[in-house]
């Protein structure tokens, strides 16, 4: 499988990723193809980015047309795409004000700064953050500081002071950490990287109540679970528990780098002011063309409805597999964000599925994650299950 296309990367990149020994060249719909022409059914979507799959002609045309006009102007000037993308994103996310970033980490950085800025305006003296164990919020300093996995933080300490970790889905453990210095509570409504842990309804409601009673802001990180993935446009909508600040990225650009943090008008009134924050590329005409077109296609094709309708089939078929192999102990997840839990390390499983022409992703805690493009149909799920079975049989 190793070929010369890999050599330049091996010799020149900083080695921070453990890449699999294949070089992918192009994609179409649910499938990716490597430089040898081998086909892979994709249940990874580039880490939940390519919700619409690959080579979506309509999106490609919109991007090409934008490239032929202009890609970048800077935020000294208005461009119609930026305002329109903001309007659409606010409409579908239920928020009022949005700031465009280039990534999920940057969206969370902005959210943390926005929460601190809110406390500063209100002179509350609040600066601490409560985050969750097993959380993942990105790799920049602020984001890594609220990431509940020691391996990501330890080599870079001291990280941001004043961050404390509560047990996910345990309201008492959150309450025990709340004090007069708590500025915000940040959590993923469905933890991805940490091993596919969905928040319980009572937990989301409880966090909202704690925040309301104590003047604390609730930040939901929907970088992975947002944009249709769990069967609602944004995961908070399914809980009916609205955050004060919402972070997004991954699927909102379907592969064009773009992220965002958004807030309610109440927060915006007391938060970031001119000069407080910025991003050179943030919200440029190209990334905003992507956001606008992605939202248009999502709504016209009812991608969210499709995920909601098809997810029970995915769950049923994954549970079948869980019942067949004694080293698979269960399934958890929501919508098209699913995990199978193994009683053994999962590192070899990925290599076996690659041999079978199937891409999946590992998560913490011996979990294999399934994050297919949101256009996956029952026939793709059947094909995935067959390939997965063949891969797992090799490990028996
Ligand atoms: C991927 C991810 C991030 C980080 O996004 P980047 O674009 O890689 O910076 C943050 N939060 C969650 C929940 C994620 O899944």
From TrEMBL:
Its main location: cytoplasm. PANTHER family: ACETYLORNITHINE AMINOTRANSFERASE, MITOCHONDRIAL, AMINOTRANSFERASE CLASS III. The modification N6-(pyridoxal phosphate)lysine is found at residue 250. CDD domains: OAT_like. Pathway: Amino-acid biosynthesis; L-arginine biosynthesis; N(2)-acetyl-L-ornithine from L-glutamate: step 4/4. InterPro entries: AcOrn/SuccOrn_fam, Aminotrans_3, Aminotrans_3_PPA_site, Class-III_PLP-dep_AT, PyrdxlP-dep_Trfase, PyrdxlP-dep_Trfase_major, PyrdxlP-dep_Trfase_small. This is Acetylornithine aminotransferase. Pyridoxal 5'-phosphate binds at residues 136, 221-224, 280. Pfam families: Aminotran_3. Gene3D superfamilies: Aspartate Aminotransferase, domain 1, Type I PLP-dependent aspartate aminotransferase-like (Major domain). One of its GO terms (biological process) is L-arginine biosynthetic process. Binds 1 pyridoxal phosphate per subunit. Its EC number is 2.6.1.11. Homodimer. One of its GO terms (molecular function) is N2-acetyl-L-ornithine:2-oxoglutarate 5-aminotransferase activity. GO terms for cellular component: cytoplasm. Its cofactor is pyridoxal 5'-phosphate.
